[in-house]
Prior knowledge:
This protein has 182 residues and is of the alpha+beta class. Helices cover 41% and strands 16% of the residues. The protein folds into two domains: 11-42; 50-152, no CATH class. The protein has helices spanning 63-73, 81-96, 105-119, 121-131, 137-150, 160-167; strands at 11-18, 25-31, 37-42, 50-52, 58-60, 102-104. Helix 3 (105-119) runs antiparallel to helix 4. It starts with 10 loop residues before the first strand and ends in a 15-residue tail after the last helix.
Amino acid sequence: MWCPFCNHVDTRVVDSRLATDGFQIRRRRECENCGARFNTYETPALKAPNVIKADGTRELFDEEKLRRGIQKALEKRPVETQAVEHSLRALVRRIRTLEEPEVSSQQLGAWVAEELARLDQVAYVRFASVYRRFEDVQAFREEIERLEKNKPGALDTRQFSLLREMSDDAPAPNTKSKNTPK
């Protein structure tokens, strides 16, 4: 690999390790001519299918566009970053391992909706409202009723636990009351 500082054609690998997501290898390189060090990242070259849009046009699958859409739906929702990354990796793996050279945006949207429904119901409804182009409040209502029917009792308890803890008269664990002797 050529050096980005002096354009010398020979650099050597000093260190290699997996990047944080495990899908890349970070290589630390050193130029044999000027001694400058820099990083390169190696990823597998997988061919993703083209996405067939609703109007019939085709575009290359864009992982960043997928990430932005999911993050927008999950904005200000109590979902762990690790769970979001896991879902994104699962979606990208599913898309990149397709045997078909093309996938419809409707199919792609259905897979994203499936992952969002698993992660957070509010994010799912946000995404579905755009993906399915809800025209009025009745469409929202029908989707929420369908969601409740398919997932009975699966309320998102992450927000309620804090309220229950605050309402208890007992002090929170690992905290000392002001009246407790030291």
